[in-house]
Structures are given as structure tokens and as C-alpha cells.
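Query structure, 659 C-alpha cells:
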């Protein structure tokens, strides 16, 4: 690959060198033509005379220069500036204008004798030039052909640049061509990613693996009357491995694999997207059976608008229409399987999602505990990890992390270990990497006053106190008042991995989130801007519970969620909007008062916890347990947390105190 890049760079350099010389040659030719045109414009008047008249002019001393052309037996005599009037009957307006007469001779020898004799007699003392070859004829031909040659040269250069002939430049003649990258095992472009490199996602991997097996051995399925699926859509959050699955398909399949992004279809030129779609399927039919992979298909597959005022006939929609036609039109696309990936399936056009186009929707979700173990095992292979590293422990401390997040954790851990001069990557490095990714970079040098430090300690201790004494609040892991990222303090929790969440669980989490602001008001007598992140979270959560999940007493069992992209009106009246606002205010106020009551009940433990934070800056779950006692509610997550070695250093989700 490096050799190919080097050759490409060399070609670019050579091409740039030749183009520069072409420009220089054109400039010289144009300059020469300009000078020649000036010379010709300055030649002034001329006339043809008989040979005896020519002889008379020479004998009278009118000649300043004589030029003889032996090939066509012609002689040209340039007239002296003070003798122009007797010859031409006019005066020269400028001394730079040249006047000459032309004549024909019969014998070159006699002409030479005549010139020699006139020179001896003193009638001619100018320059005498004798030429062989019709140089003037060639110059005239060149002069006549030069404009045409220059125009042809410029046209060739422009056409080459427009057609992509120059190094690395695509032009307007290739703008309608597909930009898909063809991957084949024979041409050495096949990626080295296989299904072994895709950890977790067992169900998604099984479905795409089945497509590969169908292409390799179709008889196994067709004998039972089955048909090959026309398309599969990979749907899931960012970083879960959708593109990686497609690369694994390309690495495993024995068929050609076309890969491109949805944005590669869309251009500023009208009709280009549809042309590229047609060209893509034309190439795919020639390589059939094959696979087409379109990454981020939402760039071109967004739902079409219902109003002409919204640009219903724009370039993106015409591209989508062509894609729909190619995927399931009157044409035959047998042997072509389309894979696509997106994390915005809710905005895709319904016609694109129907059976016959995308027969399968493969959901690639965030990995659970066991899948995170498998992902860690993949990303730990290139690392020089400590032998005592517990992968189960790392997987438990990263709930909600995607595969890309785990890869980032491993990389950050290696960087941290290298920064400290270690020979291997240990558990502390991974925990520091998780803290770095979740909370941001630690800023121990940020200057704070003692009053600010105590306010932040009371705030974070309020979060810890409330979460420890509520049944459904997430188990506390660590609390710190060391600034990290944009936050002045942070509390880490280890949330349960739930499939559904009840109203009681959400209310407990909301109460714990408001514990910081409640502690500030109760024990400092004022409130600060440090609770901005907390208030933002609880407000969004309350609106979601009331407007989307129907968890309100006055608006029960109603959902006002709408995923219509071009719907600009609210799906409820102004009276309902006012009612939703009132219910949100009531719910948050109730949980805020609940947090204050609980803090007053546990004020002694809260004060001790805040003082410990001021002294040590970081406290862990065992410190909270020593002050408040063991929690009466033990969840599965807390059992895992308790069983983990040295649980005091974990970090998962956070509760940040922002300035």
C-alpha cells in the first residue's frame, strides 16, 4: 500500500511539472505571436516593381538593405528613410516603420555581380543577405497555424482536467459515476477484518453471517424454497459496530463488495445522485452475485416531504426515488444484496424500509455485561496488559459503554501507563482512563476559595446521602470535589442495566439528582450555579415522563411523541401544553421537597461526609457505608460491586456539578 501511495505521489509530481511547462510554452508562444504581429504591423508599405526599376533604385542609392531569396528568385530592397518619398510618393510618419520593394530576378549570378558593382561605385553600402530555403513561407505558415495550435492545446488541457485526466482530479464528465469502493479478494483490497474480530452482538453477527453463507452456498437454502434476502439494515447507536460488521462481511465473503457512504450520492449538480445510483447498480449487476454496503444511509434515505414548499423535488429526493426504483423496480437485481447502516432509523422513508427492499432490520445495541467482556478481550490483544488484570472487573465498571468507547478506554489506559513510565498497563490505568472519558481531564491546579470548596463538598455530599438512602437510586461508587473537565465536582454511580424502568425508579433518581441543590439551600442558606447540570437532567426527565410516557396524574396514559420530520406543530393544544408545564413543575417540586426532608433526617451523616470530602477530596462507597450503615436494599449491581476487588476506584455514569 505504501508503494502504491508513493507511485501516486510521483505521478502527481510529474504531472504538475509537465503542466507547468505547458503553461510556460503557451506563454512564450503567445509572446512570440505578439512580437511578430508588432513586427508585421510595423512593416508599413510595400510594392512589387520590375527588375529594371529595382536596379534604378539601387543605382540612385535608395537601398538600405537587400535580402535575396534564391529558392523563389525574389529580392527585397528596404528603402532608406530619406528616400521614401521618391519611391512611394509619401512620407513616413515614424522612423520605425519599414518600407520595401520586391522584385524577381532571372540569374542569381548576375544579381550578385550587379550588387558588387554598385557597392564598388558607392551606390550601395548597406547589409546584403542571401537566403536559401523558403523561411518566410514557413514563418507565414507557422503564423497562420499558431492560433489554431494554441486553441487546440488549451482545449486538450481543459478537457483532460474536466475528464479527470490530471492527477487525482475528478471532473464533470465523471461526476455521474459511482464512487463506490470495490473490494475483491483477488485484487488485494479485501480488509483483514473477519467475524472473529467482531466481539459480542451474537444475534446481529448471526444474521449477516447467514447472508454470507447464502452467497457461498445458495443451494442449501434454495432447495427448501427459500430466497436470498434483498437487503438488511443495521440499526443501532453510534459506536456499536455496524460498520465493523460490514467490514467483516467484506472480509469473509467470496463475492465482490461495493462500499460507499450515503453522502457520496448527493452533489450540488441536479441529477448526479440518481446517475450515481444507476451506475452503482450497473456495476453491481456486472459483478453479480455481490454485496452493496451503504454507510449512513440516512444522508440520502431521509423521509420525503409532503409539501412542495419544503423542496419535494430536490436532489436528495430524486436520488432516493432512483434508489427505491433500483432496489425493487421492474429491473432484475438477482444476486445483489444491499447492506446499509444508520443510527437514525426513525427518519428514514417508509418506502425504503418495507419488505422487498430491506427485508431485515438488524438491531445492533449497546453491549451488555458479557458482551463487554468479549469486546475487552478483542481490544486488549494489542496491549501489553498486566497479568493480574481482571476483565470481568473492567466490564462491570463500564455500563452503557459502546464498543468504540471500550476501544477508547483501552487506548487511553495505554497512554496513561506510558505517561507514567510503566512497563505494562494495569488496573489503575484503566480506572483512570474510565474517569478521564466519563468526567474529563482532572484539573488539580484550578484555584478555589475555601467557601467554594465547602459549597461543592456540601453539594456532592447531598447527592451521596440521598442516593444511599433511596431504594431505587443508583449505587454510589465514588465522590470527588476535584475539578474534572468543566465540572467542579462529580459523583460516580454504577447503574443497573434495566430493560424497563418504573416510575418509582425514575422518581428516586430524580430526587437523588436534586440532592445537591437541596443541600446547598439547607446548609449554606443560598443556591449557586453549580446545579445547572442537575436541573437540566431532571427537567428533561420530567418532560419525558409526562409528555411521552404517560406518568402524570392529570395526563395519564397519553403520549405526545411524534417522529414526523416535517411536523412543525405541537401534537397537543395550548391548554395541554400549560398542563404539561404545571405537571413538570409539580413533579420536580415534590422530589425537591422530598430531598430536603431526607437531608434534614440525615443531617449529621451528611455533615460528616461533607467534612471528609473537604479533607480528602475523594471518598468511596465504603466511606459512605461506614457513616450511614449498609444499605437495606441490595441489587444485583451492588452484589457485583461488592464482589469486585478494590471497588473504591470504579467509575461508570456520573453526576457532574457544572459551574
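Result returned for the query:
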Amino acid at each position: 500500500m505504501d508503494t502504491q501511495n508513493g507511485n501516486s505521489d510521483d505521478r502527481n509530481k510529474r504531472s504538475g511539472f509537465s503542466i507547468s511547462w505547458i503553461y510556460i510554452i503557451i506563454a512564450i508562444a503567445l509572446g512570440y505571436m505578439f512580437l511578430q504581429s508588432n513586427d508585421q504591423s510595423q512593416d508599413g508599405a510595400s510594392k512589387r516593381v520590375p527588375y529594371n526599376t529595382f536596379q534604378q533604385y539601387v543605382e540612385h542609392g535608395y537601398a538600405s538593405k537587400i535580402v535575396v531569396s534564391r529558392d523563389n528568385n525574389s529580392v527585397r530592397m528596404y528603402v532608406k528613410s530619406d528616400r521614401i518619398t521618391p519611391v512611394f510618393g509619401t512620407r513616413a510618419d515614424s522612423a520605425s516603420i519599414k518600407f520595401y520593394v520586391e522584385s524577381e530576378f532571372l540569374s542569381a549570378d548576375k544579381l550578385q555581380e550587379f550588387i558588387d558593382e554598385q557597392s564598388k561605385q558607392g551606390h550601395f553600402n548597406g547589409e546584403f543577405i542571401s537566403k536559401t530555403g523558403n523561411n518566410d513561407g514557413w514563418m507565414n505558415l507557422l503564423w497562420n497555424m499558431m492560433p489554431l495550435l494554441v486553441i487546440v492545446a488549451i482545449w486538450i488541457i481543459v478537457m483532460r482536467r474536466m475528464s479527470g485526466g490530471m492527477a487525482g482530479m475528478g471532473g464533470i464528465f465523471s461526476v455521474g459515476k459511482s464512487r463506490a469502493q470495490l473490494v475483491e479478494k483477488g485484487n488485494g483490497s479485501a480488509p483483514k477484518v473477519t467475524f472473529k474480530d467482531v466481539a459480542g452482538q451474537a444475534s446481529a453477527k448471526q444474521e449477516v453471517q447467514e447472508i454470507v453463507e447464502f452467497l457461498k452456498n445458495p443451494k442449501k437454502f434454495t432447495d427448501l424454497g427459500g430466497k436470498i434476502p434483498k437487503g438488511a439494515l443495521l440499526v443501532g447507536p453510534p459506536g456499536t459496530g455496524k460498520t465493523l460488521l460490514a467490514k467483516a462481511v467484506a472480509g469473509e465473503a467470496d463475492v465482490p463488495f461495493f462500499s460507499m457512504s450515503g453522502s457520496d450520492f448527493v452533489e450540488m449538480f441536479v441529477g448526479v445522485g440518481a446517475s450515481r445510483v444507476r451506475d452503482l447498480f450497473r456495476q453491481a449487476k456486472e459483478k453479480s452475485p455481490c454485496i452493496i454496503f451503504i454507510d449512513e444511509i440516512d444522508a440520502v434515505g431521509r423521509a420525503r416531504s409532503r409539501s412542495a414548499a419544503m423542496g419535494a423535488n430536490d436532489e436528495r429526493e430524486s436520488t432516493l426515488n432512483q434508489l427505491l426504483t433500483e432496489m425493487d423496480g421492474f429491473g432484475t437485481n438477482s444476486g445483489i444484496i444491499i447492506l446499509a447502516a444508520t443510527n437514525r432509523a426513525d427518519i428514514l422513508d417508509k418506502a425504503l424500509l418495507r419488505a422487498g427492499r430491506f427485508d431485515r432490520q438488524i438491531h445492533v445495541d449497546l453491549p451488555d455485561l458479557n458482551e463487554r467482556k468479549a469486546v475487552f478481550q478483542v481490544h486488549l490483544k494489542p496491549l501489553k496488559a498486566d497479568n493480574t488484570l481482571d476483565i470481568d472487573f473492567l466490564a462491570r465498571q463500564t455500563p452503557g459503554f459502546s464498543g468504540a468507547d471500550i476501544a477508547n478506554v483501552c487506548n487511553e489506559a495505554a497512554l496513561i501507563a506510558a505517561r507514567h513510565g510503566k512497563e505494562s498497563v494495569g488496573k489503575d490505568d484503566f480506572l483512570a482512563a474510565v474517569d478521564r472519558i466519563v468526567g474529563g481531564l482532572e484539573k488539580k491546579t484550578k484555584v478555589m476559595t475555601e467557601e467554594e470548596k465547602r459549597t461543592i463538598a456540601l453539594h456532592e455530599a447531598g447527592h451521596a446521602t440521598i442516593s444511599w438512602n433511596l431504594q431505587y437510586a443508583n449505587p454510589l461508587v465514588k465522590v470527588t470535589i476535584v475539578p474534572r473537565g468543566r465540572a467542579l465536582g462529580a459523583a460516580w454511580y454504577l447503574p443497573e442495566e434495566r430493560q424497563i424502568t418504573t416510575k418509582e425508579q425514575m422518581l428516586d433518581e430524580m430526587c437523588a439528582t436534586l440532592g445537591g441543590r437541596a443541600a446547598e439551600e439547607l446548609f449554606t442558606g443560598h443556591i449557586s450555579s453549580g446545579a445547572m447540570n442537575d436541573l437540566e437532567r431532571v427537567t428533561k426527565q420530567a418532560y419525558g415522563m409526562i409528555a411521552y410516557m404517560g406518568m402524570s396524574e392529570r395526563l395519564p396514559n397519553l403520549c405526545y411523541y411524534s417522529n414526523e420530520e416535517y411536523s412543525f406543530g405541537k401534537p397537543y393544544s395550548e391548554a395541554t401544553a400549560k398542563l404539561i408545564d404545571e405537571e413538570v413543575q409539580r413533579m420536580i417540586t415534590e422530589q425537591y421537597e422530598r430531598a430536603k426532608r431526607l437531608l434534614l433526617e440525615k443531617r449529621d451523616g451528611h455533615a460528616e461526609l461533607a467534612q471528609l470530602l473537604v479533607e480528602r477530596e475523594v471518598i468511596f462507597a465504603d466511606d459512605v457505608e461506614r457513616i450511614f450503615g449498609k444499605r437495606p436494599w441490595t441489587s444485583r449491581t451492588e452484589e457485583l460491586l461488592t464482589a469486585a476487588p478494590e471497588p473504591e476506584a470504579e467509575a461508570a455514569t456520573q453526576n457532574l456539578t457544572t459551574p
